[in-house]
Design a protein that fits this description.
Largest sheet: 8 strands, mixed
Distance between the termini: 17 Å
Number of domains: 2
Strand content: 5-15%
CATH architecture of the largest domain: 3-Layer(aba) Sandwich
Length: 289
């Protein structure tokens, strides 16, 4: 399945029609476009230096080599595959408000349910009004079980009960919704650390993915968020939402280079089928389309 439903204009589009080979004008233009696309100065400089070492590349060969360089930048962070082999396995979803976290949880529940797996949703976002109700709608829509407490309750207690319910009900996947906490609010980040410890204590040995949901339009602020969440919870992967074109999302390079955290899923639309596994090569090719 293609990463994008329709052919999108990449942020490097037109670069190869303007320059026929690798020269300093081409390299200057490439570096500028990568920086403007939020790929980060280090990534831009690394790509330019790698191409500068190439001799005699022209036309399609330049495009192919640049595709390889960009792919390697993303692949250095590790495998994009979700590690959910135990029963139960756990996914803890983290991220600030407005990035599409709850919708992503619903799409994941639909995906796993379609694979015949028993899904349990955990409504540990007890801070935001109606958060549990929204998750409950997704539970009904996808046929998943749900564990929830009242608004303002202890998120740790909800996670504790969800772990117990997962064992009692034979759940395959537990997906934990957390508050859309701001990455600069230390008390809420400490709460997130506590939740991950509860999962580790109550479900020892269970595979646990901690997925940070980022809005593709966030830009370099996404790197700041990723750094803070990684420090609090040991983020294992990124879900990049609202990626409706390759002119967005360049921050994945900075995250891969700085934190070594891979992008695992991308949201390219509103439909359930629009949550897709991330493919570094395909993403790089789309940039150069």
């Amino acid at each position: 399945m293609a990463l994008f439903k329709d052919k999108k204009k990449g942020f490097l589009s037109g670069l190869f029609s303007a320059f026929s080979g690798v020269d300093e004008d081409f390299l200057d233009e490439l570096e500028e476009r990568l920086i403007l696309a939020d790929a980060g100065v280090e990534t831009a400089e690394a790509a330019v230096e790698a191409l500068r070492r190439e001799k005699g590349l022209k036309g399609a060969a330049v495009q192919e080599r640049l595709t390889q360089i960009l792919t390697q930048e993303m692949e250095q962070a590790g495998s994009p595959a979700l590690q959910l082999d135990t029963k139960p396995a756990v996914i803890i979803m983290v991220g600030v408000n407005g990035v599409g976290k709850t919708t992503t949880i619903g799409k994941l529940a639909m995906l796993f349910g379609g694979q015949g797996k028993k899904v349990l949703l955990c409504a540990a976002d007890t801070f935001r009004a109606a958060a549990a109700e929204q998750l409950g709608i997704w539970a009904q829509r996808t046929g998943a079980d749900i564990v929830r407490h009242g608004e303002g309750g202890d998120p740790g207690a909800v996670v504790f009960d969800a772990c117990a319910a997962a064992k009692a009900r034979g759940a395959d996947i537990v997906i934990v919704d957390t508050a859309g906490r701001l990455h600069n609010k230390q008390n809420l980040m400490n709460e997130l650390t506590k939740l991950t410890k509860i999962v580790g204590r109550e479900l020892p040995g269970a595979d646990c993915e901690i997925l940070l949901v980022l809005d593709a339009t966030t830009g370099q602020n996404g790197l700041i968020q990723a750094q803070q969440f990684a420090a609090a919870s040991g983020v294992t992967g990124i879900v990049l939402t609202k990626l409706d074109g390759t002119a967005k999302g360049g921050v994945v390079f900075s995250i891969a280079r700085t934190l070594g955290v891979p992008v695992k899923l991308v949201g390219v639309g509103e439909g359930v089928e629009d949550l897709r596994p991330f493919d570094a090569r395909e993403f790089a090719e789309a940039m150069l389309a």
